[in-house]
Amino acid sequence: MELQVTNSPFNQEQAEVLNRLLPTLTGVQASWLSGYLAALHSTAGTAIPVQANAGNAAVSEATGSREVTILFGSQTGNCSGLAKKISKKLMDQGAQVTVSSMSDFKPNSLKKVQNLLIIVSTHGEGEPPDNAISFFEFLHGKRAPQLEGMSFSVLALGDTSYEFFCQTGKDFDKRLEELGGKRLVPRMDCDVDFDEPAAEWMNSVLQALNEGNSAGNSGSQAAVISPSEGESDYSRTNPFQAEILENLNLNGRGSDRETRHVEISLEGSGLQYEPGDSLGIYPENHPNLVDDLIRAMDWNPDESITVNKHGDMLLLREALLKHYEISVLTKPLLLKAAEISSNPQLNELLEAGHEQELRGYIEERDLLDLVQDYSLKGIPAQSFADILRKLPARLYSIASSSKAFPDEVHVTVRSVRYDAYGRDRYGVCSVQLAERLQSGDSLPVYIQHNPNFKLPVNPDTPIIMIGPGTGVAPFRAFLGDREESGAEGKTWLFYGDQHFSTDFLYQTEWQRWLKDGVLSRMDVAFSRDTDKKVYVQHRMLEQSRELYEWLQEGACVYVCGDEKKMAHDVHATLAAILEQEGGLSPEAAAEYLLQMQQEKRYQRDVY
Amino acid sequence: MSENNLLSKNSAPHSDVEEIKIRSNYLRGSLTDTLKDPITGSIPEDDNRLMKHHGSYMQDDRDLRNERQKQKLEPAYQFMLRVRASGGVVTPEQWLMMDRIAHHYANGTIRLTTRQSFQLHGVLKWNLKNTIREVNEALLTTLAACGDVNRNVMCNPNPHQSEIHTEVYDWACHVSEHLDPKTTAYHEIWLDGEKVASSENDGEEQEPIYGRVYLPRKFKIGIAVPPSNDVDVYSQDLGFIAIVENGRLAGFNISVGGGMGMTHGDPKTYPQVSKVIGFCTPEQMIDVAEKTVTIQRDYGDRAVRKHARFKYTIDDRGIGWFTDELTLRLGWKLEEPRPFQFHDNGDRYGWVKGSNGKWHFTLFIQSGRVKDEEGYELMTGLREIAKEHTGDFRLTPNQNLIIANISPQKKKKIESLIEQYHLTDGAHYSSLRRNSMACVSLPTCGLAMAESERYLPSLLDKIEPMLEKAGLQEKDIVIRMTGCPNGCARPMLAELAFIGKAPGKYNMYLGGGFAGNRLNRLFKENIGEAEILDSLGPIIARYGTERETGEHFGDFVIRAGYVQEVRDGQEFHA
């Protein structure tokens, strides 16, 4: 077909150029071009105005001269997701982008980096996540290079309910400046609901990079990043309403504990996962807590309130059930509450010199405590709602292999219940699963990929799995995967809990895998069955010779579960085994483990 | 000894259990390793077969079986541990040890058995070794409390005739000791004893009586002292009936071939009462016991376990064959049996003064279960008594307990403790309840088909008003219940019995002899509680009005035509 002004949107000149070009295209060229145009179109979101298109080309040219290195470090995969998102934008604009996990990045190439973007989360008590440790230490060590001439910016992910909020991001930010780097845009610290601030930081970064090149050129439409963009149909920002197929307690009668095994249907969602990934679940607050709070504040549960910047409205009770976090206190929340209430006692608590007291107060208390203890009654619901955090999703290590259970995902969730300050306290998601969700009900879920907890590519590589308590969940997925794929590598599982009789999660499944040879060996530690408390690390030490042999054979080590005590003790035990059996010095053992981490032979999913 | 102790005279192939025993190297099997396996609380079936000889069965809490399967947990495996003491006599120190390990390792209760042994339930595999070690440190044992060997030797606890009891009890201990397995496996596995180099050919040396295959089936010995037949001497494979002449023990009448177990729906299996075949002096009794055991060892059926008990060995060949064989092996002939008479097979509750001037208190214990309950702290009370007591404790064959040989000086203190804890001689219970027995059954027993220990008390609650109405609350009637037809509570000898068939369903039997001298007969099959009560109501009412003076319930139901008398076990199903 000949293009003309009358049968196309083109002017005469364009039509002539196209008419000359189109007949000469090969099939491959034609389809490439159509894909290119389509992609350009979808990225832009709207039809691209001709003028803007021209401007865009100029920006691309300008940033094209720029190299940007994005380094991410995170335990869950949130940071790598954000890193990919901004790198795509930069590449669309023609920049040369290097995206890498901090653990994969060669530190000696840092000197050559022009623009460095750091996206990092903070772990536990202000520590860097596993795949950031080596880079973090390099940067803070003697061999760190001077970085004059480098521009950088840090996006820090964290949780204000922890004392050392975004600490790792802050540390990187400070250190890069000390080394002579120039801040491209200020660091952005994000709370658990990170989408909007992260998008804001990305846009600032894009803009700053552009400004640095072609003054006066503002970020075009195409460059703007919206919080929910660039993800598949169902995602963290658009969770899938999944049906519960099975929900049972794995702990036998007489146990102090309750651990739910929840089987969830992913049918029709298109969601895919691999062993090691996590499932995000958006929970609801406990209705008792919501009702008590409404009563304590004398609010009207049926009052409509605005829940976000877009002006979406919800009835108060529903908003408190589903939208806001009310079970955790954070310092920023208290600051805002003090502001809107001007309660003198609360203000005093927040004054300098009361840090210890504040820390003590925040721990194990919730919003109901706050409003009762500081008589906050009288604050209108809307004003209060405006200072609350959005209820974050909970992440659970997936306990199933999708090869063994297509269209299903299983999680293993320990119910958190305790008494504090004269009131029963409930884990938001765990107790909802334990008490208020049955098979047939549905709940909003998404898949959180975790590239830092993956089976070795080689099916013959031996694996050592250490997962006491619910930490054993991903290993059920690992073994299910190895069984289905017929992998022949040796497998060794260390498991522990309180009592053999009641707390041996998935006992009959391990027994079957042991019998079938999918699981080569298993060692267990039940801490409350004997006078002396034994834990997984004791069992590891008992088997130190053989464990060392496995390591020498190239085994990958996986640790999942409690971070504070277990993961720390297991790490120390691995080091002790290397010293004892391999004759390494403490420094060499530490180096060996660091090396294993860098080679992804030592991976952790700890919380 | 040659191959004759390895193979039965029966040429059929051995049952699987026989093969397991042969392979076991004198009851060792792979127990040392499987007890250590940390992934399961169970042991493999082959080892469980051997484990019985060490005094323990693997069980699981059947109440939880289905639930745990859904929870991806293996069954709640646990071990029943049977601790034996000949004639059921233990010291206060031994009682305190049992009390301690019951709390520390088991479910916090003690079960007194119908064979004067202790049972602990709920011992986890990991605790077995420590539990058994503590038992042995207190000079008791679990060895041969179960398994294809001679079991705990029963003996009338007789608190009245003190000297006779002492003498008879001593003989019971001698017989028991003589028939104990001699394998060192028990010491090796449980007590860290030194390993003895084993050889497949030194059977006589290791087990001079049993040989390396042991007996075809369990073997039970009981010693009665008339007029009490509390040990149910007719239910024993080998029974001794003490003959007391002029106030001294002259010797024993010997009875052979009794046994309770049968299988529902298999008429080739049946309960049997033993037959009295002669008399021997006390000094001859060990020889008689040993030779009887070796006859069963050599002739018992090793192909079909259901047909392996001594009663079938005798019934298949005739009692004449047995006495001939016995005479041959003894090298001498038994004397003619001497006259004796049994009055009953129950216990006498409350205070009795023995001929040695010491006091005895017989305590009623429902179904033999010693535990603390709200309002009845039986276990605590007995613990406190054991701390004071200087005499002994005696487990009775009816699952009751005698605080025996209380010195006159201690009587007051013990009496006050009995009062403080409201320990009961059962006087306020109906006679029916005082004469009741039930096996353990659910939830721990793997053989149970219906409830027993947990159900009988509530059934009695419903029968008692009928008795009261008929004016029979003080009339002794022997009632027994078991959850399966293996007969642990010897139900086939009771005047009124219930044997479990299915959950909530029982076979009802009538007409056993009051002195444990006659088997009962099936009256109604597979009935639930409503039908039990409907059936029993009119019979009790008639017994109330139509009984003759001194006529026992078991005799009445035969005279009244409810059931036909059973003269021999072989007509039990007829």
What does this structure look like?
- The complex is a heterodimer of chains A (607) and B (574).
- By secondary structure, chain A is α/β, with parallel strands linked by helices.
- In chain A, strands 1, 2, 3, 4, 5 and 6 form a 6-stranded parallel beta sheet that branches. Chain A has a 6-stranded antiparallel beta sheet with strand order 12-9-16-7-8-13, covered by helices on one side. In chain A, strands 19-18-17-20-21 form a 5-stranded parallel beta sheet, with helices on both faces.
- In chain B, the strands form 5 sheets. Chain B has a 5-stranded antiparallel beta sheet with strand order 1-2-5-4-13. In chain B, strands 3-16-17-12-11 form a 5-stranded antiparallel beta sheet.
- The relative contact order of chain B is 0.11.
- Mean pLDDT of chain B is 94; it is low at 1-8.
- The chains are: A alpha/beta (607), B alpha+beta (574).
- At the A-B interface, helix 17, helix 18 and strand 19 of A face helix 4 of B.
Q: What is the element layout, followed by pairings?
A:
The complex is a heterodimer of chains A (607) and B (574).
Chain A lengths: L11 H10 L5 H18 L5 H15 L2 E7 L4 H15 L3 E6 L13 E7 L11 H8 L10 E7 L9 H12 L3 E2 L4 E3 L4 H19 L26 E10 L9 E7 L12 E4 L5 H11 L6 E3 L6 E3 H7 L8 H11 L2 H6 L5 H8 L4 H7 L7 H6 L7 E4 L10 E7 L2 E4 L2 E4 L1 H9 L5 E7 L14 E4 L6 H13 L5 E7 L2 H4 L3 H10 L4 E6 L9 H7 L1 H9 L3 E6 L1 H20 L3 H13 L3 E5 L1
Parallel strand pairs in A: 1-2, 1-3, 3-4, 4-5, 4-6, 17-18, 17-20, 18-19, 20-21
Antiparallel strand pairs in A: 7-8, 7-16, 8-13, 9-12, 9-16, 10-11, 14-15
Helix pairs in contact in A: 8-13, 19-21, 20-21, 21-22
Chain B lengths: L15 H8 L7 H4 L10 H9 L2 E5 L4 H6 L6 E7 L5 E2 L1 H13 L5 E3 L5 E6 L4 H10 L16 E2 L6 H18 L5 H6 L12 H4 L14 E4 L13 E8 L2 E9 L18 E6 L4 H15 L10 H8 L1 H12 L19 E4 L5 E5 L5 E2 L1 E2 L2 E2 H11 L3 E4 L5 E6 L1 H13 L10 H4 L1 E3 L17 H14 L9 E4 L13 E7 L2 E6 L10 E7 L1 H18 L6 H7 L15
Parallel strand pairs in B: 6-7, 7-8, 18-19, 19-20
Antiparallel strand pairs in B: 1-2, 2-5, 3-16, 4-5, 4-13, 8-9, 9-10, 11-12, 12-17, 14-15, 16-17, 20-21, 21-22
Helix pairs in contact in B: 5-13, 7-10, 10-12, 13-14, 16-17
